């Protein structure tokens, strides 16, 4: 682009000359020169446009150097759009911008020479913006890139460094979900650990086992159990000499979190709890004694559970009970601890309603929900999800629990929830999602494929009348068993979200997230 | 630290006195390794770094001189000696070392030879926060002829083990000897677990994971002296007793205090979990239940839980009878990939050593001898034209020429004279068999072994 630089210089000189000769009349020669320059600029503009389009085809990068270099024209800009009207006053600013851009371009070119070698053909200036754009693109998390061998190698190295065994995948994965982990319950991670676990605290080993065997299941239960285990870890922790508690304890927790992740992928609520703990630990002032710091952390953890889970449940049931009227027929899906809590509280407050529990294989969690509700005395009906469209005409409201609420208003919950929300929408039945604010997460997802969890495929095998048809499913090369755990429900199907902050529409979730982050 | 390992090696081997009158049971050679090496190896492979070994002074002395234990066992062995004649049961031994126990324990018996995956037992212990987790295995029929056995073996008293549908929760355990009037099950158990599988052909591997509160309970309750015989059935019964399950109200506590003042209660087993309200909250919010069909919560609200892992494949032997000892000798070498013939043995070229035989260190096997399916101990001398089949020869034995040994057990330092013919015999320590003797199905021990009447 040497031409443009030359013309740049010419233009600048023209501008300067014009400023100087503002008052005088233009002479003939000057008029001719102006006409020539205009022609040249037009040609350059055409060239630039071509280049811009070709570059867009190559890299999709904006050409922001053009406005700075040719302020006389009005080339399409993407990032910087200086007003072309202020041409005379722009000279100094424009000079500075020029210099800045050139410096950035040089820096970018050095970076690009190190990184991407394939883009040597283009000039240095358009390289400045592409790198900015690329750094704004988020890296994909590791747990949804299982089919990428490099990511697996990195994960293996990280686990080796933390002395945690790598859990190997099991069985044939359906191709659409081959980017996710799939583990077998019969091959627990403890097989590869030494029995008196020295690297990992015994409370964490116990927790990991309970997660992988499904003894602790459900978003709230997992978070509470996680915080309980962390309390035990903190209780047994002693600061090594020459180390600070605020930094060392966080480092100690990292391998535990990797271990728990290997046992079962972390849930959004667990992620938020871990962030909270890490923040609390790093905020401990260094002059505090160890005992004081540890007891303070324990109180903080207790406070977190009290506020975010117990009191939130109370607040949510208070709001939800307003929405339950006498004579209601309420449909619930699976076993959500929060929805069960709401229904039990409503029943204690003498609301007359009956419940229809919808259940699905292979987890069949609805049975546990029915047990808890019937124990309180609530009248329940139990159906499987295949008959949900049959039973919906009877239903007046649908209450759903959530595993997480995503930043674009989508609800992530047990697989089957979106189905129920869809059918309810078709029947014009209101769908209310109950979710505590600590389960709100910054992720954005529009489908259930990209980020999900694959459970043990052997759970789908069932023995009826002594026959197990899927026993040898691994020997059939084209057969894959898929056991999904979560799915996402779009906000169009959800009428109201009941949180501890009140009853909000699904689209207000990003507002809550913003307010939360401002608070912190 | 999560678990402390305790190895019980003070037993006398009361069911195989002929073998153990001179060599204590933990040091009996099996596949040319002392018997207690096997559980120690198991613990080491799994990852333990320290073991508390409860044994007698004699065994401790032998351990310190034994090359296998000294060199190959890399764990730190904390040996606690108890008096031989104190007649301590296994529970008494635990009471003795109560000071050393700081966490939950894994108790192993010295006569256990197994290749079981220990993590299965410990996982049950961890995941369900159990009080007791044990290992059992289907019993194998012993096919080898046992020397000195006259007539058929009397069937040993069977153990009745009741498990739930999943096969892991231990609901019932009793020995046939205690069930004279038939097997009776309490209604409360049947109501909670309507389906119980009762199994009889199981061998208890005597490997127990116990919570620390059980050890504390033992120190207070001095009536229990054996883990297998008394403690385990007590714990299994206690799972369903009302006092451990129902929450103690104020009046109950006052009653108990009253009783303590009167001084006539048995100390209760107190199961305490740290930070119980949070654990309770987590289990309440979790949508998991270990059973279905009735209205109760997970574990029926019981805090005392006993679990058992029943192996479905693999080796598991308890070497506490002569038959088990012979069987173990046959199969133990298959557990480890070790060369059958020790490199330091001097074997002549014209002899025949079968592929499933083991020859120990510093042996001398002369010409034209044949050794089939046998175990030859260390420093044994086998002269010419000797036929050894299906036998176990311990250390330091001398077998003169022309002997024929079939299906026998020859203990240490014995001397078999020339041309002797032994079939299914057991020769005690240091015995001499005169030349050209012919013995079948006899137990040849010294005069000092006979009891004085």
Describe this structure in a few short sentences.
The complex is a heterodimer of chains A (520) and B (453). By secondary structure, chain A is an alpha/beta fold.
Can you give a write-up of this model?
The complex is a heterodimer of chains A (520) and B (453). By secondary structure, chain A is an alpha/beta fold. Chain A has helices at residues 2-20, 28-58, 65-69, 90-114, 128-136, 149-162, 202-213, 219-235, 245-263, 268-282, 290-323, 337-348, 366-376, 388-391, 417-426, 509-519, and strands at 328-333, 353-359, 380-384, 397-401, 404-405, 411-414, 431-434, 486-489, 496-499, 502-504. Chain A has a seven-stranded mixed β-sheet with strand order 3-2-1-4-7-9-10, with helices on both faces. In chain A, strands 5-6-8 form a three-stranded antiparallel β-sheet, with helices on one face. In chain B, helix 5 (90-96) crosses helix 8 (212-220). Chain B has a seven-stranded mixed β-sheet with strand order 5-4-1-6-12-8-13, with helices on both faces. A six-stranded parallel β-sheet of chain B has the order 15-18-21-24-27-30, with no helix packed on it. In chain B, strands 16-19-22-25-28-31 form a six-stranded parallel β-sheet, with no helix packed on it. Chain B has 13 helices and 32 strands. Helix content of chain B is 24%, strand content 25%. Chain A binds chain B through residues 188, 190-191, 193-198, 202, 205-206, 209-210, 213-218, 220-222, 224-225, 227-228, 231-232, 302, 305, 309-310, 334-335, 337, 365, 367-369, 371, 374-375, and chain B through 1-5, 46-49, 106, 117-119, 122-123, 126-129, 274-275, 278-279, 281-289, 292, 295.
Shape of chain A: globular
**Strand composition percent of chain B:** 15-25%
Secondary structure class of chain A reads alpha/beta
Specify Rg of chain A, calculated over alpha carbons: 31 Å
Number of helices of chain B: 13
- Which chain pair shows the most residues in contact? A-B, 43 and 34 residues
Structural class based on helices, strands and sheet pairing of chain B: alpha/beta
Coarse shape of chain B: elongated
Give me the side-by-side strand order of the main sheet of chain A.
3-2-1-4-7-9-10
Major sheet summary line of chain A: 7 strands, mixed
């Amino acid at each position: 682009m040497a031409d443009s630089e030359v013309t740049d210089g010419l233009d600048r000189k023209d501008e300067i000359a014009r400023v100087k000769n503002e008052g005088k009349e233009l002479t003939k020669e000057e008029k001719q020169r102006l006409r020539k320059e205009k022609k040249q600029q037009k040609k350059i503009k055409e060239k630039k446009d071509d280049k811009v389009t070709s570059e867009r085809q190559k890299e999709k990068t904006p050409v922001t150097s053009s406005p700075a270099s040719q302020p006389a024209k009005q080339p399409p800009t993407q990032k910087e759009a200086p007003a072309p009207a202020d041409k005379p006053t722009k000279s100094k600013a424009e000079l500075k911008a020029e210099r800045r851009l050139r410096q950035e371009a040089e820096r970018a070119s050095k970076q690009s020479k190190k990184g991407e070698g394939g883009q040597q053909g283009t000039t240095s200036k358009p390289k400045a913006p592409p790198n900015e754009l690329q750094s704004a693109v988020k890296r994909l998390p590791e747990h949804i890139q299982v089919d990428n061998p490099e990511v697996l190698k990195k994960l293996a190295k990280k686990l080796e460094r933390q002395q945690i065994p790598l859990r190997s995948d099991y069985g044939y994965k359906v191709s659409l979900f081959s980017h996710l982990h799939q583990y077998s319950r019969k091959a627990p991670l403890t097989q590869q650990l030494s029995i008196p676990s020295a690297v990992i605290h015994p409370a964490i080993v116990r927790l990991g086992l309970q997660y992988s065997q499904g003894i602790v299941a459900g978003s709230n239960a997992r978070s509470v159990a996680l915080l309980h285990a962390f309390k035990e870890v903190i209780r047994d922790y002693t600061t090594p000499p020459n180390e600070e508690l605020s930094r060392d304890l966080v480092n100690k927790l990292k391998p535990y979190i990797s271990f728990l992740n290997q046992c079962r992928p972390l849930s959004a609520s667990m992620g938020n709890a871990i962030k909270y703990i890490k923040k609390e630990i790093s905020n401990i002032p260094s002059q505090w004694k160890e005992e004081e710091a540890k007891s303070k952390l324990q109180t903080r953890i207790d406070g977190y559970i009290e506020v975010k889970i117990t009191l939130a449940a109370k607040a949510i049931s208070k709001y939800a009970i307003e929405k339950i009227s006498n004579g209601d027929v309420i449909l619930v899906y699976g076993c959500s601890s929060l929805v069960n809590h709401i229904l039990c509280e409503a029943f204690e407050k003498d609301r007359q309603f009956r419940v229809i529990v919808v259940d699905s294989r292979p987890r069949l969690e609805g049975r546990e929900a029915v047990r808890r509700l019937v124990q309180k005395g609530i009248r329940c009906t139990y159906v499987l999800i295949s008959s949900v469209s049959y039973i919906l005409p009877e239903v007046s409201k649908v209450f759903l629990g959530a595993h997480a609420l995503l930043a674009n208003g989508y609800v992530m919950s047990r697989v089957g929830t979106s189905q129920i929300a869809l059918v309810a929408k078709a029947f014009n039945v209101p769908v209310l999602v109950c979710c505590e604010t600590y389960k709100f997460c910054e992720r954005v997802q529009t489908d259930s494929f990209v980020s999900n969890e694959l459970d043990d495929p052997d759970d789908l095998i069932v023995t009826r009348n002594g026959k197990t048809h899927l026993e040898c499913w691994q020997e059939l090369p084209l057969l894959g068993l898929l056991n999904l755990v979560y799915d996402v429900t779009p906000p169009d199907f959800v009428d109201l979200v009941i949180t501890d902050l009140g009853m909000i529409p699904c689209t207000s979730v990003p507002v809550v997230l913003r307010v939360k982050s401002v608070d912190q | 630290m999560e678990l402390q390992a305790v190895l019980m090696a003070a037993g006398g081997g009361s069911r195989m006195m002929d073998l153990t009158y001179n060599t204590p049971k933990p040091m009996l050679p099996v596949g040319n390794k002392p018997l207690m090496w096997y559980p120690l190896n198991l613990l080491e492979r799994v990852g333990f770094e320290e073991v508390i070994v409860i044994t007698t002074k004699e065994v401790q002395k032998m351990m310190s001189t034994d090359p296998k234990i000294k060199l190959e066992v890399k764990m730190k062995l904390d040996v606690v000696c108890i008096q031989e004649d104190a007649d301590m049961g296994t529970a008494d031994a635990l009471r003795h070392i109560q000071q050393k126990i700081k966490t939950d324990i894994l108790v192993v018996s010295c006569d256990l030879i197994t290749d079981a995956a220990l993590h299965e037992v410990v996982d049950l212990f961890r995941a369900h926060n159990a009080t007791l987790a044990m290992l059992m295995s289907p019993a194998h029929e012993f096919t080898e002829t046992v020397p000195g056995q006259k007539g058929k073996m009397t069937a040993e008293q069977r153990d009745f083990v009741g498990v739930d549908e999943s096969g892991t929760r231990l609901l019932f355990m009793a020995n046939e000897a205690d069930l004279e009037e038939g097997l009776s099950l309490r209604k409360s158990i049947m109501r909670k677990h309507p389906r119980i599988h009762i199994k009889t052909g199981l061998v208890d591997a005597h490997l127990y994971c116990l919570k620390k509160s059980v050890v504390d309970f033992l120190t207070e309750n001095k009536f229990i002296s054996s883990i297998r015989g008394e403690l385990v059935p007590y714990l299994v019964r206690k799972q369903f007793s009302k006092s451990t399950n129902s929450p103690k109200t104020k009046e109950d506590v006052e009653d108990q205090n009253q009783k303590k003042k009167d001084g006539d209660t048995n100390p209760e087993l107190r199961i305490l979990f740290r930070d119980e309200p949070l654990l309770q909250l987590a289990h309440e919010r979790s949508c998991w239940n270990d059973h279905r069909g009735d209205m109760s919560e997970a574990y029926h609200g019981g805090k005392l839980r006993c679990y058992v892992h029943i192996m479905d494949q693999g080796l598991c032997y308890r070497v506490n009878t002569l038959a088990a000892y012979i069987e173990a000798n046959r199969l133990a070498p298959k557990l480890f990939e070790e060369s059958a013939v020790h490199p330091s043995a001097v074997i002549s070229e014209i002899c025949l050593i079968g592929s499933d035989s083991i020859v120990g260190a510093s042996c001398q096997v002369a010409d034209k001898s044949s050794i089939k399916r046998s175990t030859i101990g260390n420093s044994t001398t086998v002269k010419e034209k000797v036929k050894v089949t299906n036998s176990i020869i311990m250390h330091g034995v001398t077998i003169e020429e022309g002997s024929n040994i079939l299906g026998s057990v020859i203990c240490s330092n014995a001397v078999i004279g020339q041309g002797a013919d032994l079939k299914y015999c057991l020769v005690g320590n240091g015995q001499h068999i005169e030349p050209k003797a012919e013995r079948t199905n006899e137990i040849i021990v010294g005069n000092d072994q006979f009891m004085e009447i």
